[in-house]
Amino acid sequence: MMERVRGVTLRALYGRLTIGNGCRRVFPRYQTVSSRGFNANMSPPSKAVVYDQQGPPDQVTRIINFPPVEIKENDVCVKMLAAPINPSDINRIQGVYPVRPTVPAIGGYEGVGEVHSVGSAVRDLSPGDWVIPSPPSFGTWQTYIVKEKSVWHKINNVIPMEYAATVTVNPLTALLMLEDFEKLTSGHSIVQNGATSMVGQCVIQLAKIQGIHSINIIRDRVESEEVKERLKKLGADEVFTEGELGAKNIKALLGALPEPVLGFNCVGGDSASLVLRLLRQGGTMVTYGGMARKPVTVSTSSFIFKDLALRGFWLQKWMSAGKAKECRAMIDQLLDIIQEGKLKYEMQLVPFDEFSVALDKALGNQGSQPKQVLKF
Amino acid sequence: MMERVRGVTLRALYGRLTIGNGCRRVFPRYQTVSSRGFNANMSPPSKAVVYDQQGPPDQVTRIINFPPVEIKENDVCVKMLAAPINPSDINRIQGVYPVRPTVPAIGGYEGVGEVHSVGSAVRDLSPGDWVIPSPPSFGTWQTYIVKEKSVWHKINNVIPMEYAATVTVNPLTALLMLEDFEKLTSGHSIVQNGATSMVGQCVIQLAKIQGIHSINIIRDRVESEEVKERLKKLGADEVFTEGELGAKNIKALLGALPEPVLGFNCVGGDSASLVLRLLRQGGTMVTYGGMARKPVTVSTSSFIFKDLALRGFWLQKWMSAGKAKECRAMIDQLLDIIQEGKLKYEMQLVPFDEFSVALDKALGNQGSQPKQVLKF
């Protein structure tokens, strides 16, 4: 299905931009176009990260300008403030994601913006309000977005914009994984690998709030002691490197902590096996990523005698299952937690014009970097 | 915990048999022993397959004689009629099973017998009744068993004894796996590997009764066409060899059959991967065996994007979860199906005295063989 951008199909718009002599037509801001004999309410022109085909993101993406579009009576025109570059955004551009917009498409999936203007029938939103697309949707890497009012969820503007821009994909994944697979109560333990990831950091903090202990696995690295300290400051009960867990009697390392009933895996391969080894009898491991690009390997006896269950989690599928209302309630809950200072994670705001620098960092070409968030 | 045999601990009994000059004391049948000044109701002497230590079953098992034991007021003395040699019996003797009787122990876990005599307080059972230990319990490979009345479940004696002897471990596993993991209704499909196994054959027939299609995977072998014919006669909708499923477009092989929502794996390795590939989006694979002695390998995307769930099933654990009553009701249901001629599987009755021959076949030393059932 063709992705619609600000009221018209991207293909139609994009066609207009490239046909003829191929030059990019830049329309003046706030231009009002008279068409079919009446004055329409028009958006400002927009600037967006577009890719014409799936492929290496640093090769297939470029920033182009879009002309103003009409703001219909139920539409809201949002001036985007910030939007992150998540691994799933990169995967969509690479074409390795099973659900992806038809190309040409605009990048990005979540973000926050400020209402710029509204259609004549819109009552609940006013210029200046902060909104996020909720459930998130394609095409947040652009300066102005016009979409139907139901797309937008109004939020408080008392938290830093980079948190509002990033609250959906990673913190919500962490919250849902903690809630949807096992009935956890205070005193339980969970175990996770990839604990330094943004979801990993959220899991630690959201577990802590509920009195749930977290046992965390990180890669072996030179600065592992600093990483351990950082995660413990967030609330991690234990942090082990994969090497430390090579011990035969892995359970002895848990000390007084109860054996975890739930595990999260975003790495795969041997690191997933460590999660499985640490789980208690009857526990569940949820896979939500595969950073090591290696499959999960499970012994027969883990299934039969240890009664482990293995599941997967994909936020986009959860979203598509009629969870829009529930999603917004959980987002509000997360925003409250952020406002209270109980949910923090490292980010770096990068001016939109420096998109290629941010992308380079997000692609991992400059070593370990904080989450890159575009500032429009 | 010490396994109790006919009222006294096996260790105590067995000690009596081997101390002194080490000869085996054989007591005359129907002997009545006077002890502590009163005449007790005694069992006949018994002959049992015993193993002194875990190890290769053909090396550690031997048949020995046990003296009569007292039949207390709530006890029932059962003359065993038949008991199978299941793979799990072999695994228990080998010591590779996580729950196993303390050695020395008597082999076997299920079987059928005829009530020989009852204690003074037993009203519900009479000599001649057919009974099975339900839930099953250790030590069915012996000619006479004395256990408390609650152990025994009275069944109809209108079906062949070899079916009564084998109804619990394999058919019940098949029935529970079809019922406990997904809500299947008429028109659904399931997929399984190891389809020629006894559980596999039961799955085909029990699915058929409920209008559920079965897609079956067998090893590549010379006589694969005959095997396919045999399974189709039982009710299999499709039977593929592993080699045939190497095709790229595996789903095309299903023709008009719906993609299976549930899969059963008793093999592991590549054969388990075929089950996973055939499952539909959101499907579940249940592992209940690992004949290939290879782990199950699962891609990250199978969990995240295909939303597969992987579980395990172990009858012994299910039994231990307070399911005694439910178990007996299901056994009765299965016995009715057997009586109606709708559940069949290949078996070979072997005289108890030829235990070593039956064991050799059960160990797979003579190629593919029907289920070996000891006849006492």
From TrEMBL, chains A, B:
Known catalytic reactions: a 2,3-saturated acyl-[ACP] + NADP(+) = a (2E)-enoyl-[ACP] + NADPH + H(+)
Subcellular location: Mitochondrion
Cross-referenced InterPro entries: ADH-like_C, ADH-like_N, ER, GroES-like_sf, Mito_Enoyl-ACP_Reductase, NAD(P)-bd_dom_sf
Keyword Nucleotide-binding applies: no
GO cellular component: mitochondrion
Keywords noted in UniProt: Fatty acid biosynthesis, Fatty acid metabolism, Lipid biosynthesis, Lipid metabolism, Mitochondrion, NADP, Oxidoreductase, Transit peptide
EC numbers: 1.3.1.104
Regions that span the bilayer: none
Chief location: mitochondrion
Ranges for domain Enoyl reductase (ER): 55-374
One Pfam match: ADH_N
CDD domains linked to this entry: ETR
GO biological process: fatty acid biosynthetic process
UniProt GO molecular function: enoyl-[acyl-carrier-protein] reductase (NADPH) activity
Protein family (similarity comment): Belongs to the zinc-containing alcohol dehydrogenase family. Quinone oxidoreductase subfamily.
Descriptive protein name: Enoyl-[acyl-carrier-protein] reductase, mitochondrial
Source organism per UniProt: Thalictrum thalictroides
